[in-house]
Every structure is written in C-alpha cells, then in structure tokens.
Amino acid sequence: MTIDTDFHSHVSRSSARAMVSEARERGLRVLGLSEHVFQMREVRPLLTHMPLEGPEMALVDYIEAVQEAGQALQFDVRLGLEIDFIPGKIEAVHELLQGYPWDFLIGSVHEIDGRLLENEEGWGGPPEAERAWHRYMELLRQAVGSGLFSVVSHPVRLFVENPHLPANIDEELEQLAAEATRCDVALEINGFDVATYPQVVRRLLRACALQGTPVSVGSDAHYPSSLANSHEASAHLLREAGIRRVRIWRAMNPEEYRI
Over the range 219-239, which residues count as b (16 or more CB within 10 Å of their CB) and which as e? Predict the structure, then answer.
C-alpha cells in the first residue's frame, strides 16, 4: 500500500479504539479520526437538523477516547473533526471548538441552502440540478476561503444524487482547485467517491494537477471494516493525474509524503 494514511474516519458507530486497532491491522502508518461535529453535545443545538449517526458525545470525551486509543495501542493517531460549512452558522460552530488540541479540521458541504446533498427526493431536471451544482461549487469555494479548515472533503459528493453535471464542470473544478492552492487548503480524494463514481473524481484530480493543489486521501470510514477503502484505486487515480504527494497534518501544521 503506497498510501499508508487515512485522514477521514468516524467513531460514532464503533469506537476510537476499534478504528485504531483496525488501522494497525491494515498496515496504516497514521490514522486521522474526524467525527462529525453534529455528534458533539456542545454543538448539537446549532445543528439539530442533521441526522445523528450514533450517540451524542461531549467534545472532551471524544478527544480523550482518541488520545487513549493511540496511547494504548501505540499508534500514531491524529485528532480531527468534520465540520459542516453552513453560512450563518459556521462562525458559531467554530467558536465552540476553540481551545482544543486539533491536529486537523475537515470542512464539508452536506447541504445546499437547507437541502441535504443526499436528498432522496432528488434535484429535479437538468436546469434545476445544474443550478444546484453551481451553488454547491460556490459553497465549496467559500469553505476553502474561510480560513477555518485544513482540508475540504468529498468535493464531488453531490454526484451521488445529482448526476446532472453542468457543461462547465471542469472549469468549476479548476476554480475550486485554484482557490484551494491560493489558500493552501487540501482537497480530499474520498474513498466512497472513488468507489462509486471514479470518473468524476478523475476530473477533480485533473483540476488539482493543473492548479498544483494539495491533496488529502480519506476513506470516510464509518466502520472499522471500511478503513483504507479504495486506497489502491485512489493511488492509481493520483498517479494517473501526475500527483505524487499526499498531505496530512499534526497540530494543524501540514506534512506531506510521496507515494
């Protein structure tokens, strides 16, 4: 395995120790744990519309569980959080996260003006669906430019329920990649996306290669069995695009290694 890190994974459906144990078994070198911010008790009142994926947890309990798992299993675990970028709420959410020893923070766009991305009702016909893509890309650029995040995750996730890509999607992706390069924020190559619609991830990587954008790789695992999901396929796509470096973080400082 040439990609030996995973910087997007969750603990609410298992535990930090279970995830770290699986990471060691799979031969990973570093694991970044990044539970959803809406699972945190302190933040929950601001994000009650987001469906819980497990029991609520206090920030301090989450942090202690991550740190204890790394110490007990003698494994390099980095402490992160996946944070929903929602205009009008993000500042209040971010304020609640100050003073904790984060290694990295993931910014995610899970909704567009109140509509969840993976909405079972769909996005309508091409005109409406294409407008949703333009707004989605605008929100991603805002997340990148906010200065709040180390990385912005799954930037083509809208495709899961909205395959109506606008004609200028490559231009949109290049604009996003250019903004990420300008802000020194990574864009994520997500294991679920790679497994489900690699053709769209390939277009994202082409934009990152053109703009010299830092790239992170994360499985988005919600169970231990999904860790390092699609890492081999992700490595293939990265090499195909001419990208040879993967970004990770410690204490909010970027590190990179060659694949």
Answer: bbbbebebbbbbbeebbebbe
* 245-250/253-258 β-pairing: antiparallel
Residue with tokens 């609520």: 56
6 neighbors 217 (Cβ within 8 angstroms): yes
- Per-residue pLDDT of 96-148, as tens digits, reads 999 999 999 999 999 999 999 986 678 888 999 999 999 999 999 999 999 99
Query: Which region holds residue 184: left if phi is over 0, alpha if psi is between -120 and 50, else beta?
Result: left
Looking at residue 40, the DSSP 8-state letter turns out to be B
| Cα–Cα distance for residue pair 46/158, rounded to 1 Å | 23
Summarize pLDDT for 30-57 with one digit per residue, the tens: 999 999 999 999 999 999 999 999 999 9
The whole-angstrom separation of Cα 94 and Cα 107 is: 11
What is the model's pLDDT at position 188?
A: 98
Q: Is the CB of residue 41 less than 8 Å from the CB of residue 250? A: no
Structure tokens at 125: 């016909």
Long-range CB contacts (within 8 A, 24+) of 57-63: 57/12, 59/96, 59/97, 59/100, 62/11, 62/16, 62/35, 63/100, 63/101
Report d(CA 80, CA 64) in Å as an integer: 12
Tell me if 9 sits within 8 A of 80, measured CB to CB: no
For residue 72, the tally of other CB atoms under 10 A from its CB is 12
Beta strands per DSSP E along the chain: 5-6, 30-36, 76-84, 104-108, 111-112, 115-116, 151-152, 186-190, 215-218, 245-250, 253-258
